[in-house]
Design brief:
This protein is flat. Helix 1 runs antiparallel to helix 2. It is 65% helix and 5% strand. It is mainly alpha-helical. The longest helix is centred in the first third of the chain and has 23 residues. It has four helices and two strands; from the N terminus they run H-H-E-H-H-E. The chain has a two-stranded antiparallel sheet with strand order 1-2.
Length: 129
C-alpha cells in the first residue's frame, strides 16, 4: 500500500531544492547565493536523471494505491496554503516567514502522494488494483 522506496526517492529529490531556496533567498553573501543557484541547478539535473525516459521512476509507470488520494491531498494542501497566506501575510508583516514556508507546501504536494503509489507492470492494465 505504501511505496517507501519511491516516496523517499521523491523526497530526497526535493532536498537540493529546499536547501538551494534557503541559500538563495535567506543567507546573505555572494558565495552563498551562488551556492543556492548551484543547488537549484543540481535539483533540475537530478530530476532529469532520476525521472528521465529510461528511468524506472517515471510517474507514468506509477498507479495510486488509494483512489483520488493525490487530488484530495493536493486540494487540501492548496486550501491550507491559501489560508496560511491569508492569515499570516496581513500587510506584508510576515513576508519572510511566508516565503520560507511556501516552498515546503509546494514540495509536499509532490512527495507525499508519491508514497501512496505502486509500480505498474507494463503488461498489466492500469485500471487493475
Amino acid at each position: 500500500m505504501i511505496d517507501w522506496k519511491y516516496g523517499f526517492v521523491r523526497t530526497i529529490w526535493w532536498i537540493p531544492f529546499m536547501i538551494g531556496w534557503l541559500f538563495l533567498f535567506y543567507v546573505r553573501g555572494s558565495y552563498l547565493s551562488t551556492t543556492g543557484v548551484v543547488l537549484l541547478i543540481i535539483f533540475f539535473i537530478l530530476g532529469i536523471l532520476l525521472f528521465g525516459k529510461k528511468s524506472p521512476y517515471q510517474e507514468k509507470n506509477r498507479q495510486e494505491t488509494l483512489k483520488h488520494f493525490s487530488f484530495v491531498f493536493r486540494t487540501l494542501l492548496a486550501i491550507t496554503a491559501i489560508l496560511f497566506l491569508w492569515l499570516f501575510n496581513k500587510n506584508n508583516e510576515n513576508e519572510a516567514w511566508v516565503s520560507l514556508v511556501f516552498p515546503f507546501f509546494f514540495a509536499g504536494s509532490d512527495f507525499v502522494p508519491a508514497f501512496f503509489t505502486r509500480k505498474v507492470n507494463k503488461y498489466q492494465g492500469r485500471n487493475d488494483l
